[in-house]
Amino acid sequence: MARQRNLAASLGAWSARHRRTALFGWLFAVIALTVLGGLVGQKSLTEADYGTGESGRAARLLVDAGIKTPAPEMVLVHSDGLTADDPAFKKAVTDAIAAVDGTRLAQNIGDPYRTGAVSQDRHDALIQFAVKGDPDTAADRIQPVVDALAKADDAHADVTLGQYGAASGLKGINDSLGEDFTRAEFTAVPVALGILLVVFGALVAAVLPLVLAITACVAAMGLLALSSQLVPVDSMTSSVLLLMGLAVGVDYCLFYIRREREERAAGRDKESALRIAAATSGRSVLISGLTVAVAMAGMFLSGLTVFEGFAVATIEVVLIAVLGSMTVLPAVMAMLGDRIDAGRIPGLRRRTRVRAAGQKPGRLLGAVLKAPAVFAVVGIAALLALASPALSMKTEKLGFDQLLPADNVTAQTAKRIEKVFPGAPAPAQIVFETDDIGSAAATAAIADFKKQALASGHVKNPVEVTVHKDENIAVINAPLAGDGRGATSVRALERLRDEIIPATLEKDGAARAPVGGDLAFSTDYNDQLKSSIVPVFAFVMGISFLLMLLCFRSPVIAITSILLNLLSVAAAYGVMTAVFQKGWGDGLVGTTAVGAVESWMPLFVFVVLFGLSMDYHVFVVSRIREAHDSGAGNRSAVAHGIRSTAGVVTSAGLIMVAVFAVFGTLSMQDFKQLGVGLAVAVLLDATLVRAVLLPAVMVLLGRSNWWLPGWLTWLPQLSHGEEEPAPTPAQRSAPQRSGPAQNEHTLAGR
Questions:
Q1: C-alpha to C-alpha distance for 118 and 709, rounded to whole angstroms
Q2: Distance between CA atoms of 353 and 235, rounded to whole angstroms?
Q3: Which of 87-91, 217-221, 637-641, 651-655 has the lowest mean pLDDT?
Q4: Which residues contact 342 (CB under 8 A, 6 or more apart)?
Q5: Alpha carbon distance 28, 425 (integer Å)
Q6: Which of 561, 680, 559, 674 is nearest to 614 (CA)?
Q7: Taken in order 575, 686, 183, 169, is the CA torsion positive or negative?
Q8: pTM here?
């Protein structure tokens, strides 16, 4: 059967011949996308866009009616020594109200002595108010209130004033996001550069992958701004884009450059080495990139807008990185030639070791090849042990106080309010719509609801009702029993939805009263995520299977790749659960366990890891297939493939782990969970899975690895081998005394 033309080889050859066109075309595209993206700006998701289920319908009712609920805020007045009856405490409450009112940014300021918002022990009082104007911009305008309260707080030595609410909480998150994003940028890049300097031992070779990855991220940011006009994105999407762009952009270049340097060290001329790198590593990059992009597309099946934004951003940056690796990278490498090794770093020059297929494997690989069954059992058992905590994983839409660091003043205030005034920080919000909201029947229904809700014990005072007569809508804020997020509050929400509201507000069949609020949103969000797990997992695994089948013409390899990736994902789930839910070793990553994993994290981590794991799998198995197609036996082909890719896979994995680990050091809880989960999974995948489990399993399977059913022989036979005559054995085995790749080395022989 004729082999199909290698697209990666064709693009690499064209770029090498048209170097200036490829280089300046890339630069023009990056600049154009950046300028166009800056002109239109990035469109963000609105609060209603996030919703799903009943809480989503409640938010949509308000949006359709043009009602914007003012951002709620609270001021906690607390004293350890004074009570609410002491004059000094009352003076602090009065001054706090005056400070808030003096900013002219607040409305509906509630005096706790009138609203009854005083704690049972009389050491706390809660001042509630709303921020005037558009709630979507309240976080940007809340600073004068924060400053006024800080000044009032300084005037009272025995009383503390703490602020928390939708605006101040969001401001705290935005401030932390900005600081974290800046820290990630200024930390991840130097760390990656340091690793690349060690890998290549030369400044030019180390800088080139970083420059391409950064320009890919810049171009993707501009493209994201354009695509966000159709698919609005979450504020965290840019950070996710940077995370993925740096990781895959550097790795793809690393695969390409290392293969070209390897071929030069083996005696190839410059043109042949670059052509082989394009046909082999370039092809692996193309397949890996497409696999990652397709895996990310699975997020569209989640039914949640935030995942749609994540999918668009990651697909864009991955495809741009792939395009750059296949076009501008070979163009620049053709321009540089052996000057890519310019700027040698003293102390990092190492003799090149070009491995031949028949060479003796290193100690670890040799042991795996001798006892594959033992290593397979031990490796699988280790991953299952790491995955075991995930059996009790609890997912939750984390609140502001959980996302912010534990020592954050706003987070501490929120936790105190939850403890002293259960349900106050996050009341249920019922959107009551009827034909005539001002009618006696509607008024009686609201009164009946308040009576039954309070009598049930599932709702606590103060129950606030805001009537919008023109829109025939009443918004009812009802604090739930419990802390606003625990089992008690969940039961209260269920009773509210299933019993109290149907018996009161919805007694008239024409009326609607969907329940929103933070807990309702989190519950509906989790329900939607749970319902989307099966279709998303099935889509990602199904498409990955088809891509692997098409790539290697082997259903056995396709199934093996999926099972190994699932083990990596399960281990990541277990570590995340152990650290962030159970608190095992949480101090090691600079955090305090919040008792749950962020609700969107498992699905996102699965999709990302499944895609990224294919990078290493495709790269390693492609080299195994090369050796097999050249006539090597299964065991020899496996040994050669693992041995020849050990260095680059270890280096690429180390870079990904470093980039992800940087995000694990940031202050925001969701960044920490994402960074730690991805870093652990990639570390396991690049070491235990690829260096131990993969060779053990492939040796055990023997010739079955390359079995293809007769009814699948129509699959195209894609080229896995070199497009040049192989170097002589002397060229392959002779160490290079000097030349372009003296820092090349593998870790397999160690």
A1: 75
A2: 47
A3: 651-655
A4: 202, 203, 204, 336
A5: 50
A6: 561
A7: negative
A8: 0.79
